C-alpha cells in the first residue's frame, strides 16, 4: 500500500518535521504523537550514499531479530519481541544490546509459546507496539541493519511501521543468509543453527530475539573475515558482489 499523498502543511508535515500541533498531541496523547513523529523522522534520509564507502572493518551496524506470532503479517500475525546488539566492524559490543516484548492484538499460539517461551500474559503486560518500535529505532539510530533470513523481519517491521506511523523501513539491511549463499554456495542448507554449528558458535537461547541477534552477530563477524579475504573492503563492494551473485 502506498502512503497517501499529503499536503505540505498541517499534521503530517509536522510529523515529518519531528513535531505535532499541540491540539492534536493533546487528543492523541503527547507520548504517542511524539513517538510517531520520531519514527517518521528516523525514516528520512537513511540511505546515505557516503556509507557505501565505509570500510566493513569500521562499519557500525545493529544485528537484530524479531519473534512473531507466525509468518504472515499480511494475514494478521504480529511482532512479539525485538532483540538487537550493536557491532563496530567485527566486534560485538556486548554491553550495547536491546530487548523488549510488545503487546500483540493477535493471541499468542500455543506452539509459539512452546518455541519462544512468550506467553499471552507476558505480552499483555508489555509496552505497546508503538512504544517498542520507538525504543528499537532509538537504539538502531542511523546504523546499517543485519539479520538472518531478513525478508521475514523486514516484512514485519514494514507492517508495524506502516500501521503505527505510515512509513516504511528505509535503513540498509544486510542478510547473513544471503552472505552465506555467496560465501559457501555448495552448502546443503542455510538455516541459522546449521551455519552457527559450522562456525563453532555455541547455540543457546534459540528463538529468543536477543540471543538470536547475538549469535547472528557472531556469524556476521566470521563473514567479515571471509569477505576481507575476498578483497571486499567496503559496503559498496559487498552490494556490488551480492548483486552479481
Strand content: 15-25%
Based on CA atoms alone, the radius of gyration comes out at 19 Å
Net shape: globular
Helix percentage: 40-55%
Number of strands: 5
Number of helices: 11
Structural class: alpha/beta
Average pLDDT, to the nearest integer?
87
Largest sheet: 5 strands, mixed
Instruction: Compute the separation of the termini in Å.
Output: 30 Å
Give, in spatial order, the strands making up the sheet with the most strands.
3-2-1-4-5
- The helix/strand series, from N terminus to C terminus, equals HHHEEEHHHEHEHHHH
Low-confidence stretches: 1-29
InterPro entries: DnaQ, Ribonucl_H, RNaseH-like_sf, RNaseH_sf
Keywords: Exonuclease, Hydrolase, Nuclease
Organism: Paenibacillus cucumis (ex Kampfer et al. 2016)
Pfam families: RNase_T (PF00929)
Detail the topology: elements first, then pairings.
Blueprint: H1 11-16, H2 22-28, H3 30-42, E1 60-68, E2 79-88, E3 91-101, H4 110-116, H5 120-124, H6 129-140, E4 144-147, H7 150-165, E5 173-175, H8 176-183, H9 192-198, H10 209-229, H11 235-244
Parallel strand pairs: 1-4, 4-5
Antiparallel strand pairs: 1-2, 2-3
Could you characterize the architecture of this molecule?
With 245 residues, this protein is α/β, with parallel strands linked by helices. 46% of the residues lie in helices and 15% in strands. It has helices at residues 11-16, 22-28, 30-42, 110-116, 120-124, 129-140, 150-165, 176-183, 192-198, 209-229, 235-244, and strands at residues 60-68, 79-88, 91-101, 144-147, 173-175. β4 (144-147), α7 (150-165) and β5 (173-175) form a beta-alpha-beta unit. α8 runs parallel beside α10. The radius of gyration is 19 Å and the shape is globular. Residues 60-229 form the Exonuclease domain.
Amino acid at each position: 500500500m502506498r502512503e497517501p499523498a499529503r499536503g505540505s502543511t498541517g499534521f503530517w508535515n509536522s510529523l515529518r518535521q519531528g513535531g505535532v500541533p499541540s491540539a492534536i498531541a493533546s487528543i492523541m496523547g503527547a507520548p504517542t504523537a511524539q513517538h510517531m513523529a520520531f519514527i517518521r523522522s528516523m525514516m528520512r534520509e537513511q540511505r546515505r550514499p557516503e556509507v557505501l564507502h565505509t570500510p566493513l572493518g569500521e562499519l557500525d551496524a545493529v544485528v537484530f531479530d524479531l519473534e512473531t506470532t507466525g509468518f504472515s503479517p499480511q494475514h494478521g500475525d504480529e511482532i512479539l519481541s525485538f532483540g538487537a546488539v550493536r557491532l563496530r566492524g567485527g566486534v560485538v559490543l556486548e554491553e550495547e544490546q536491546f530487548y523488549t516484548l510488545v503487546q500483540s492484538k493477535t493471541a499468542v499460539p500455543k506452539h509459539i509459546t512452546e518455541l519462544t517461551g512468550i506467553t499471552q500474559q507476558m505480552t499483555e503486560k508489555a509496552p505497546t507496539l508503538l512504544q517498542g518500535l520507538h525504543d528499537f529505532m532509538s537504539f538502531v539510530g542511523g546504523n546499517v541493519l543485519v539479520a538472518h533470513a531478513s525478508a521475514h523481519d523486514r516484512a514485519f517491521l514494514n507492517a508495524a511501521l506502516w500501521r503505527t506511523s505510515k512509513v516504511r523501513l528505509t535503513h540498509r539491511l544486510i542478510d547473513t543468509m544471503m552472505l552465506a549463499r555467496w560465501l559457501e554456495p555448495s552448502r546443503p542448507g542455510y538455516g541459522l543453527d546449521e551455519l552457527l554449528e559450522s562456525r563453532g558458535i555455541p547455540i543457546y537461547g534459540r528463538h529468543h530475539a536477543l540471543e538470536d541477534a547475538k549469535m547472528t552477530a557472531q556469524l556476521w563477524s566470521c563473514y567479515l573475515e571471509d569477505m576481507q579475504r575476498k578483497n571486499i573492503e567496503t559496503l559498496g563492494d559487498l552490494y556490488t558482489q551480492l548483486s552479481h551473485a
